[in-house]
Write a structure and sequence with these properties.
The chain is an alpha/beta fold. The protein is built from 10 helices and 14 strands. Helix 4 (112-124) crosses helix 9 (257-272) and helix 9 (257-272) crosses helix 10 (278-294). The two termini are 33 Å apart. 45% of the residues are buried. The structure holds NADP nicotinamide-adenine-dinucleotide phosphate. The site of NADP nicotinamide-adenine-dinucleotide phosphate (NAP) has 23 residues, from helix 5 and helix 9. NADP nicotinamide-adenine-dinucleotide phosphate (NAP) binds at residues 113, 138-143, 162-164, 167, 204-207, 209, 233-235, 256, 259-260, 263.
Amino acid sequence: MAYGDERCLTGTTGVLGVIGDPIGHSLSPAMQNAALEALGLDYIYVPFHVSPLNVKEAIAGMKALGIRGLNVTIPHKVAVIDYIDEIEPVAGLIGAVNTISNEGGYLVGYNTDACGFLRSLKEEANREPQGQRITIVGAGGSARAIGFQLAVSEVDHLVIANRTKSSALALAEEIGGKTRCSTVGIGLDELESYLPATDILINTTSLGMYPQVDTMPPVECGKLPASALVCDIVYNPSETLLLKKAAACGLPTLPGLGMLVYQGAAALEIWLQVNPPIDVMKAVVKRELAKRSTS
Ligand SMILES: NC(=O)c1ccc[n+]([C@@H]2O[C@H](COP(=O)([O-])OP(=O)(O)OC[C@H]3O[C@@H](n4cnc5c(N)ncnc54)[C@H](OP(=O)(O)O)[C@@H]3O)[C@@H](O)[C@H]2O)c1
């Protein structure tokens, strides 16, 4: 791969990448290329801007070009399912794929957003999901991935609270119907009464995300039990207003950066059977986010 210390592409360099629309903002190329370099692997990770009109062709191209693995980001996570050969069971439940592995021309789809959150919960917050009373704020794509993952991880029950109550009801009903998990869907105006019976609260809305850093979901942190863990999957800024308020109440917190890094690490594990350099990946993401908030 290298001549001296220079990274160099050759005829044997393996190709990985990410497809999305837009794609220019993605942190994955910097994070994944740093990981590949740290591991000394002869692979390159490329961002591909793919319009919704070209998803079928892009996935056919993955086979034709022998691209070993692709991450899939907004808005293609559902559309790609029609063009792959097999879907891993939890990704099938979620109904969204963010990682495709090309196994000699046979494409397998995974959802590493879901397992990325779970691994961050276990390794960074030291919490196991089993028996926990979970409240998810939001009912969008990431709430769906995290909700299904937790539902199959033997949590005690799942509350889904959303601004649009009908979406919370629909997601709760779907998760409850497809798994053995007890679920309830509520509006944000009902959230307060569920806080005292919450062990882990997860914000999956975009509230608090840069540049709207002064916003947060309506969570009265003082109403949560003293041991409740407050998670925010927003990773920019790394400490959101919600997490600041939770910490001020003495509650443990879990920022979204870990989920972002572990979903990428899980993809590398699937594609290349390696042990990804988590610290290198985290440092790169922090550096890239710092650049963006000052530019
Ligand atoms: N850490 C990670 O690896 C990671 C991974 C994926 C996503 N994320 C972050 O997670 C956030 C959500 O992503 P997503 O893909 O799930 O988005 P999404 O599918 O568009 O869902 C957005 C959710 O936020 C709610 N929401 C948006 N604006 C709101 C407001 N002003 N007040 C109350 N609720 C509001 C929406 O409620 P309605 O249904 O009422 O519109 C919906 O539940 C983004 O900030 C994203 O950056 C992080």
